[in-house]
Amino acid sequence: MVTSNVKVLGAWPSPFVSRVRMALKVKSVDYELIEANPHEKTELLIKSNPVHKKIPVLFHGEKRICESLIIVQYIDEVWTDGPNILPSDPYDRAIARFWAAYIDEKWFPLFQLLRDAQGEERRAVVQKISEGLSLLEGAFVDCSKGKAFFGGNNVGYLDIALAGCVGWTRACDILLGAKFLDETKIPHLVGWVERLYSDSSVKDLMPDPHILIELYKKFRAMSEAASE
Amino acid sequence: MASDKVKLMGAWQSPYAMRARIALNIKSVEYEYEEEDLLGNKSDLLLKSNPVYKKVPVLIHADRPLPESLLILHYIDEVWASGPAILPSDPYDRAIARFWAAYVDDKWFLHLRASVLLEGEGAKSATEEIGEGLVLLEEAFTMCGKGHKFFGGERIGYLDIALGSFLGWIRVAEQRNNASLIHESKTPKLSQWAQRFCADVAVKDVMHPTDRLFEFAQVLAAKHKASREN
């Protein structure tokens, strides 16, 4: 299905932008990616998302939608002849939404803390991230019901919500030796990550952790130079 | 087959629990209500039903627990689909309603909390931020309401419930800070909307009694101050 009036304002390294692109891929919707540097509050970004001034923003014709999880739900509700993204059962939908909100409100923000933390503080944040992964491991067992993905046989809402964060999680494993994706502790999630890299809807949209590390190092160097 | 019994764990002071009660009222769902004492120990049932956040509200339907008020609103709307709709039917209108409800909970609420718990400069600047947020929400009302009585149109809906559940606490913030937040002069549409919302049949029996809430706020603020000094 070809739709040319769909645009995504975003940047490929962003886990939130990845979610939107994965959802559009699941629905086979063509779109134009308008690259936006999240650290530069350009006029376009401010005009497109005046309340939060953040990416991603989805443009669908004249309509403008912000907030990645809200955009993913919008995509699921508009393009109804593609595969479902949200589960069909109301309770399963609620649980998928619950864990996606947990990722955004409690778990992924820990990675921001990790950036600036040192020593004991860093160890404490690493511990919290690992505890969150244990919770998500339990969520995977409950949601997947023995199948390949949180969404069952195919990638769904919670898979998309977490998949965008995998690149950064792996980047931290490499950069900090954190061993977040430890198959002795979270075997189901580790298996799930491997399957993501073969899934046609998401594999090309998972940021490469090595490239993320290079980007991060460049960003740090620029911020440090700017503050001198 | 699990029983279809509906139970709601809530607290009278909680705007989030109020949301769930309003939604159940809209759908005319009978439910058992269990009050948690916010100043006492958390009950075993709460800890078991919401191990991640340990907070009210929790909706228990057919023995399955569901926390988080905005998720509960979605769930109630989807399960009792034959009752009046809570979410709008158009996907874009749904996205806009979800956006503003998320804004209320993730950004705006922090200022409301600060204006109630803090004193002095902290409370003053938080109160200003609440006001600025309400101006944004006044604009959102024009966009969502499309000239009707509520954000949801002719009947209260998702965003009405998300914001309206805070009206009691907004009044507390006004009293504590000697401020005027929802007022004809600043937010004329929200001012009229607030009256209509509080009078709605699904809302009026569960809206906070302001005097009692004000007393509770004093207790909370004192506790907050004591914990910061220790």
Automatic annotation (TrEMBL), chain A:
Domain annotation GST C-terminal: ranges: 89-219
Listed GO CC annotations: cytoplasm
PROSITE patterns: GST_CTER (PS50405), GST_NTER (PS50404)
Documented EC number(s): 2.5.1.18
One GO molecular-function entry: glutathione transferase activity
Keyword Transferase in record: yes
Domain of life: Eukaryota
Annotated keywords: Detoxification, Transferase
GST N-terminal domain segment(s): 4-83
Catalytic reaction equation(s): RX + glutathione = an S-substituted glutathione + a halide anion + H(+)
The protein's enzyme class: transferase
UniProt KW Transferase keyword: yes
GO biological processes: glutathione metabolic process; toxin catabolic process
Entry's family note: Belongs to the GST superfamily. Tau family.
Protein name: glutathione transferase
Organism, scientific name: Sesamum radiatum (Black benniseed)
TrEMBL record, chain B:
Keyword Cytoplasm: no
Top-tier EC class: transferase
InterPro entries for the chain: Glutathione-S-Trfase_C-like, Glutathione-S-Trfase_C_sf, Glutathione_S-Trfase, Glutathione_S-Trfase_N, GST_C, GST_C_Tau, Omega/Tau-like, Thioredoxin-like_sf
UniProt keyword list: Detoxification, Transferase
Catalytic activity: RX + glutathione = an S-substituted glutathione + a halide anion + H(+)
GO term, biological process aspect, one: toxin catabolic process
Xref: PROSITE patterns: GST_CTER, GST_NTER
Family assignment from sequence similarity: Belongs to the GST superfamily. Tau family.
Cited PANTHER family: GLUTATHIONE S-TRANSFERASE U17 (PTHR11260:SF615), GLUTATHIONE S-TRANSFERASE, GST, SUPERFAMILY, GST DOMAIN CONTAINING (PTHR11260)
Protein name: glutathione transferase
Protein species of origin: Sesamum radiatum
